[in-house]
């Protein structure tokens, strides 16, 4: 059994990439989505239970008899000490996903205002604080045996995508690249079934004149500086927006 433990901020493209992983030729896959109680002891407990649900939100399910287990952890601080307990498990991979902070924030902001969330500003600030901590793993090469995926390069560079899948020991199937289905619908177009014409690298432009977005996101100089460093390190070409 292959195990993938995936960390990603909400609205950063988690499900687009996980959908590709689930369509990589694996016969039997369980996806535990946005798990809230991530503990090694519970992993061991449920590894002894046969599968009853192949997709489940927030809680554990059995996965004894599967070929691939995906555990996705959204908006979570990366628990290095807890992850160390998983190191001895054969064929395990830790994935950390990072997206342009301005587009990530714009997608989250769109979702929050759509559902009329009363804590929009607080949650937006929290997401960007979390984004800054994730960025440290990308810039400082912290050793937690992880596969780092930069969303912006992933969706622009096929060689980069192929290399990521090779690192995970999976087969990349490009026909599923732009699919939108299941979890992770676009709140810019809830009817969209793919990312074609979605302008996924220009989400921030929807709010470039929004006072809340300007104050909390576009005026945050640390976000600009960190994103510039990410662009330089990962050699993002001139066709990818830095802002």
Q: What is the alpha-carbon Rg in Å?
A: 18 Å
The number of helices is 9
Query: Percent of residues in beta strands?
Result: 5-15%
Order of strands across the main sheet: 3-2-4-1-5-6
- Which CATH C-level class is it? Alpha Beta
Shape: globular
Number of DSSP-assigned strands: 6
Q: What name is given to the CATH topology?
A: Rossmann fold
- The name of the CATH architecture is 3-Layer(aba) Sandwich
Averaged pLDDT, please? 88
Distance between the termini: 40 Å
N-to-C series of helices and strands: EHEHEEHEHHEHHHH
Structural class: alpha/beta
Stretches where pLDDT falls below 50 for ≥5 residues?
none
Number of domains: 1
Helix content: 25-40%
- Main β-sheet description: 6 strands, parallel
Notable traits:
243 residues; Rossmann fold; alpha/beta
Structure, explained:
With 243 residues, the protein is α/β, with parallel strands linked by helices. The chain has one domain (2-233): Rossmann fold, CATH 3.40.50. Helix content is 38%, strand content 14%. The protein is built from 9 helices and 6 strands; from the N terminus they run E-H-E-H-E-E-H-E-H-H-E-H-H-H-H. The protein has helices at residues 14-22, 40-46, 80-84, 101-114, 120-140, 151-154, 158-168, 211-218, 221-233; strands at residues 2-8, 29-33, 55-57, 68-74, 92-98, 146-150. Helix 2 links the parallel strand 2 (29-33) and strand 3. The N and C termini lie far apart (40 Å).
């Amino acid at each position: 059994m292959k195990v993938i433990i995936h960390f990603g901020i909400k609205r950063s493209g988690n499900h687009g990439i996980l959908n590709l992983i689930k369509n990589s030729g694996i016969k039997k896959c369980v996806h535990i989505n946005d798990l809230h109680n991530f503990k090694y002891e519970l992993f061991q407990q449920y590894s002894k239970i046969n599968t009853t649900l192949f997709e489940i939100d927030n809680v554990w399910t059995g996965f004894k008899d599967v070929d691939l287990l995906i555990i996705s952890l959204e908006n979570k601080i990366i628990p290095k000490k807890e992850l160390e307990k998983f190191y001895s498990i054969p064929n395990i991979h830790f994935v950390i996903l990072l997206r342009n902070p301005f587009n990530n924030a714009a997608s989250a902001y769109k979702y929050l205002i759509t559902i009329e969330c009363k804590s929009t500003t607080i949650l937006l600030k929290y997401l960007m604080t979390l984004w800054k901590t994730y960025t440290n793993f990308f810039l400082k090469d912290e050793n937690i045996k992880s596969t780092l995926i930069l969303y912006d390069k992933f969706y622009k560079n096929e060689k980069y995508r192929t290399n990521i899948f090779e690192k995970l020991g999976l087969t990349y199937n490009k026909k599923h690249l732009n699919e939108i289905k299941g979890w992770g619908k676009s709140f810019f177009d809830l009817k969209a079934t793919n990312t074609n014409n979605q302008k996924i690298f220009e989400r921030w432009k929807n709010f470039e004149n929004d006072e809340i977005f300007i104050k909390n996101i576009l005026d945050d100089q640390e976000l600009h500086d960190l994103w510039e460093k990410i662009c330089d390190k990962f050699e993002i070409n001139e066709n990818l927006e830095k802002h």
